[in-house]
TrEMBL record:
Belongs to the peptidase S1 family. It comes from Brassicogethes aeneus. GO terms for biological process: proteolysis. This is Peptidase S1 domain-containing protein. Residues 33-259 form the Peptidase S1 domain. Residues 1-20 form the signal peptide. GO terms for molecular function: serine-type endopeptidase activity.
Length: 262
């Protein structure tokens, strides 16, 4: 399963639309912050919650005063829902604090493939500009083609489950993970599952990880956004690193999407 709050989303969507694309919601991946700590929004001021009718379904990151970066699979889930996506910015709590914005439109990477989860990035443009401050601030994206050696320390944050089959957390949590380089990561998965648009991070023993509800959220190294929570098998399992969209290889789409004027 992908790392969205699938249960909430399934419940929510099935009320309105019958299942033509529900099957797509349950691919062979499990979603994933396991082993994390409660965190202040001031330490992760780019973190946002994507909601529909007040239900959190994914995370995202502020990348400009009008744009949120998230996972394509998050946007794919709600593509047939007519109401705007609500974006809560500047709060560590899901249901209060900060400020709510609506989406004005969304863009999904044109090569996004729901079956393989390749090119798992999308952008939400907001209906009005964000006032940036200590609790809401855009994060810079990693330089194009930049890669990081195994064991580089990275941070993840979100409101996702604290354990496999857990529940959405009302307060933001974060944890520390280690990058696993491309060649090594491929060995943990089946041939062809890991593309160059993916980046792996985790801990050899499991322990800290992303989980359901963290999808779309940030993977950060030295205050630069390098990844977006994408998919994994279970959460916090030993030898099962989580997979993130590799932004160093997806910059072209992001830069263009931000430049487009609507
Ligand atoms: C978002 O849109 C909904 C309905 O489409 C509207 O009721 C609400 O006031 C809007 N909220 C903001 C913050 O723009
Ligand atoms: C933002 O943080 C800085 C440093 O902690 C502080 O000096 C400043 O007063 C804060 N600004 C606001 C608007 O809270
Ligand atoms: C990144 O790699 C691509 C493909 O190899 C290349 O075309 C592009 O110029 C590189 N960009 C930078 C900034 O090095």
């Amino acid at each position: 399963m992908v790392k969205v709050n699938t249960l909430f989303l399934l419940a929510f969507i099935s009320l309105m639309y019958i299942n033509s694309y529900l099957n797509e919601l349950i691919p062979s991946f499990e979603n994933r912050i396991v082993g994390g700590l409660p965190s202040s929004i001031k330490d992760f001021p780019w973190q946002v919650s994507l909601q529909m009718r007040g239900l959190h379904f994914c995370g995202g990151s502020i990348i400009s005063n009008l744009h949120i970066l998230t996972a394509a699979h998050c946007l794919h889930l709600v593509k047939n829902v007519e109401s705007p996506i609500e974006v809560r910015i500047g709060s560590r709590k899901l249901h209060k604090g900060g400020k709510l914005y609506n989406s004005s439109y969304v863009m999904v990477h044109p090569l996004y493939n729901p079956k393989s989860t390749n090119f798992d990035v999308g952008i939400i443009k907001l209906n009005k500009p964000i006032k940036q401050g200590n609790t809401s601030r855009a994060i810079q994206i990693v330089d194009e083609n930049k890669s990081f050696p195994t064991n580089t320390i990275a941070y993840i944050s979100g409101w996702g489950h604290k354990k496999e089959n857990g529940e959405i957390q009302d307060k933001l949590r974060s944890s520390r993970v280690k990058i696993i380089d491309y060649t090594l990561c491929k060995k943990y998965f089946k041939p062809g599952e890991i593309s160059e648009n993916m980046l792996c991070a985790g801990n050899p023993t499991g322990e800290t990880d992303s989980c359901q509800g963290d999808s779309g959220g940030p993977l950060v190294i030295q205050n630069k956004l390098v990844g977006v929570v994408s998919w994994g098998i279970g959460c916090g399992r030993p030898y099962r690193p989580a997979v993130y969209a590799n932004l160093a290889n997806l910059r072209q789409f992001i830069d263009e999407a931000i430049r487009i004027k609507y």
